[in-house]
């Protein structure tokens, strides 16, 4: 449990780093005429991601979930791969990456890096991490709950993001 707690703490620190980068990038985008879309779904998204980390720890402790090496190690590899994909996305998008939907009119869509193959690779990273991270220590209720709630939230987020990008392309 101690190693898993450290893992979750490291992911929490990573999330805080993301928020700092997102804040800086939001200022960059807004200074260039960026427009934010979908503010209403952002607080539930923050709550869901916070709940994932809290749920991982609480379920393992309260339900006395064991570490099963045959499940835990492959899930750790998946969770780390998801982090790698997320940071690849952040690097490729540069100052355009954000946790919010902010679109700067006139900028072309990014088509490099993982965006060559997937339209929304960061959301794949979120989905994989959302089931893999809890399953590192057999927190299957958290994995299932996050996956279901994230799929609902992600449907809203994708509609919002696609609409924002369509509006900006039409205005260009």
Question: How would you sum up this structure, described in words?
Answer:
The chain is mainly alpha-helical and 172 residues long. The protein has one domain: Up-down Bundle (Four Helix Bundle (Hemerythrin (Met), subunit A)). The model has no long low-confidence stretch (mean pLDDT 95). It comes from Kitasatospora griseola. It is found in: Membrane.
Low-confidence stretches: none
**N-to-C series of helices and strands:** HEHHEHH
Range of helix content:
over 70%
The level-1 CATH class: Mainly Alpha
The CA-CA distance between the termini, in Å, is: 53 Å
Write the CATH architecture name. Up-down Bundle
What is the CATH topology? Four Helix Bundle (Hemerythrin (Met), subunit A)
Largest sheet: 2 strands, antiparallel
Average pLDDT score:
95
Overall structural domain count: 1
Question: In terms of topology, how is this protein built?
Answer:
Layout: H1 2-31, E1 35-37, H2 42-62, H3 69-93, E2 101-103, H4 121-135, H5 140-171
Antiparallel strand pairs: 1-2
Organism: Kitasatospora griseola (Streptomyces griseolosporeus)
GO molecular function: protein C-terminal S-isoprenylcysteine carboxyl O-methyltransferase activity
Transmembrane segments: 67-88, 123-149
